[in-house]
Amino acid sequence: MGQLISDVEEILDNKKAKKAADNERKKMLEEMRRINAEKENLVRKSLAAQRAKYGAGASGGSGGMSSEAVLKRLKSETAESFEEKLRSAADKLAKIQTPHANLLKKWAKRLLANI
Questions:
Q1: Helix (H) or strand (E) segment spanning residue 115
Q2: What is the pTM of this model?
Q3: pLDDT tens-digit map of 61-103
Q4: What's the confidence (pLDDT) of residue 59?
Q5: Are 70 and 50 in contact (CB under 8 A)?
Q6: Residues in CB range of 36: below 8 A, 6 or more apart
Q7: pLDDT in tens, 43-58
Q8: Distance of alpha carbon 38 from alpha carbon 61, whole angstroms
Q9: Among 72, 79, 86, 80, CA closest to 41
Q10: Per-domain residue ranges for the chain?
Q11: Percent of the chain with pLDDT over 90
């Protein structure tokens, strides 16, 4: 009877752990969405400020750099810190594991041990 109770407790604990893992995944995905939206917003603002400063059609840089090259470099520099945050969040997301209870194996071992 004690084994049955421990098996039921294990199943309930497993369900709680799965639910916690699912909640953690949802939180990480929401954080990744927020970071991405923040990155896109900041990039748009930076590009708009750069275009306003140098004019949309004018040469945007010095030393012969085209305005497209300047804007591309500005975009990559602005997004760089956000990309690191997204990589970190993706790593955390990959490390979240859903527990699996294999009661069939456990019961088979008990059965074989009693034979």
A1: none
A2: 0.58
A3: 455 567 777 778 888 888 888 888 888 888 888 888 777 767 6
A4: 47
A5: yes
A6: 82, 86
A7: 888 888 877 877 655 4
A8: 26
A9: 79
A10: 2-114
A11: 12
In three-state secondary structure terms, 99 is: coil
Q: For the chain, what's the residue count?
A: 115
Helices (H), the chain: 2-54, 67-95, 103-114
Q: Are 101 and 17 contacting, i.e. CB atoms less than 8 angstroms apart? A: no
Separation of alpha carbons 105 and 115, rounded Å:
15
Q: Name the 3-class secondary structure at 55.
A: coil
Q: Tokens in use for 76? A: 């990559």
CA distance 67 to 83: 24
Instruction: Give the Å distances, CA to CA, from 65 to 59, 94, 101.
Output: 8, 41, 60
Pull the structure tokens for residue 100.
């699996």
In sequence order, what are the residues at sequence separation of 6 or more whose Cβ sits closer than 8 angstroms to the Cβ of residue 70?
Answer: 50, 54, 60, 61
Give mean pLDDT, residues 15-33.
Answer: 90
